[in-house]
Amino acid sequence: MGEVELGLIGWIVLGGLAGWVASMFVGTNHRQRIVGNIVSGIIGGVLGGWIFSFFGGAGVTGFNIWSFVVALVGAIIVLMIWKAISSKRQS
User: Fold this and answer.
1) Rounded distance, CA 55 to CA 70, Å?
2) What is the pLDDT of residues 32-82, one digit of tens each?
3) How far, in Å, CA of 13 to CA of 51, rounded?
4) Strand, helix or coil at 38?
5) Are 14 and 71 within 8 A, CB to CB?
6) pLDDT of residue 27
7) What pLDDT does 79 receive?
8) CB 3.0–4.6 Å: which of 6, 16, 22, 27 could bond 76 by disulfide?
């Protein structure tokens, strides 16, 4: 009922928002630009969808709040891993 499917633009918008919020949460916003936010959000959406589905929940189901939460959780995980890897390289 009123569900909007995600096309390419939807993934970019949802990924950008999720990546941006995740980068503020993880503390990487100052290093990322809009492309970094979009990429981390899209990868986070895929990862979050897989994790949620693995545990019996719904993954990214369309352009809605639930999908944003799934993408946000995934993007936070992606950015935490990226931050750990990049900090080891700089040491």
Assistant:
1) 13
2) 888 888 889 888 888 988 898 888 888 888 888 988 999 999 999 999 999
3) 21
4) helix
5) yes
6) 87
7) 92
8) 22
User: Which 8-state DSSP code applies to residue 57?
Assistant: S
| Spatial distance between the Cα atoms of 77 and 1, rounded to a whole number of angstroms | 31
Whole-number Å distance between alpha carbons of 15 and 70: 11
22 near 33, Cβ under 8 Å? no
First-to-final CA distance of the chain: 52
Beta-carbon contacts of residue 20 (< 8 Å; ≥ 6 apart): 29, 37, 41
Amino acid of residue 83: K
Question: Which pLDDT score, from 0 to 100, does residue 77 have?
Answer: 93
pLDDT of residue 2: 56
Residue length of the chain? 91
Task: Report the alpha-carbon distance of residue 62 to residue 78 in Å, rounded.
Answer: 21
Cα 12 to chain centroid, rounded: 10
